[in-house]
Amino acid sequence: MSGGYTRLTVQGAARKADVVLPDDEPVAALLPPLLDLLAEDRSGSGRPVTLTTLLGQQVDLTRTLAEQELAQGTLLRVVRVDQAPPPPEVADVTDVVAEALAARPDRWRPVWGLAATAGVAAVAGWLAGAALDPGAGALAAALTTLLATALARLHRTGPAWVLAAAAAGGALALAPALDLPLPTALAAWGMLGLIAALVGGLGAGRVSAGLGGATAVLLAGLVPVLEPMATERGALAAAGVLAVLLLGVLPGLAMTASGLNGLDDRAVEGRRPGRRRVLHAVDETYRALTWATVAAAGVVAVTGWLLVRGDLIWSTVLGGVLGLLVLLRARVLPLAPQRLALIAAGVAVAVGWALTREPEAVLIGAGVVLLVAAVISGLRATGPLAARLRRLASVVELLAVLATVPLLLAMLGVFGDLVGTF
Predict the structure, then answer these.
(1) What's the pTM?
(2) CA pair distance 390, 97, nearest whole angstrom
């Protein structure tokens, strides 16, 4: 209750009463009328009484109810002091500490040890790739990848991923030295995708790793295929646009690759699959979507970075549109790694644009971004407002997708050819 009173339930030997007592009076001053109310025997002066909670905690008679912070509705028992139960003791501190440690998500686990070992192997592979000549380094990376694939086929996943990390480190070191018909960053991304597809997809049998690796390889390999028919910028633009468009169909591809769509068809036909199989298919679907999203986001980051740093206005605008599209697409993906990958790709495009602009323009752009970020971080949109914002984002995304078509045609030189023809 308010106004300096506390409602308590006091139980004696024969009676029980709900009372409202002042908070600022010592409990000892309130005890005699309470005993009279409950018709307690007060003749045994040599055996004083006290009040205890259900847990056996004794109420301090010299202090007030407010000082002891007794909650509203607390049940107190009237007992003789010599018959009062002992107060509770917490004797499982060690157990609580152990349980708390086991429940922490940042507790050291074997997977962290494997990740640390793989990181060391990647650094070693990078050093070896930098020390060898390109031909020998490429051969060593290829043999390491094949060995990792074989180990994964034998279910030796730990050594397989360590060797795959070493091959990836070597590929990153070799990418600048190899004379490949595509930008260095895109070549490195494609080689990482190839390693993931071989070791994770072909070796370990993970559909998710296979889909993600194949996505990176196909998008990166599109550039040297298209470059003879267009300029390098045009090929980069085509790869970036395809990567953004692919983000829209990745959920369906992931469900098909993991077999989830097939299970749904079987359920419709009356052949219900087991729960464990369905859960495995759902988990593999999310994994496949994450791998493929990261692969496509990497391609958008590289192509968008290079496009916004180009000299042509078409190149800059198309790169900006690609960055905007991945940021808008991030809002519809369910898992944090997927969204973070797309946000990182959009930020990479923005940074690439900023590095080619005048400091004044960069300061203005950075100020606007900081202001928008601060507003968004403190915004708690209501249901109707959130719905309107989602519709607005969908409209902007549709317009941006439509804008990629004429921008891509301009990058491929179609408009110039038309002007020359007519």
Answers:
(1) 0.73
(2) 45
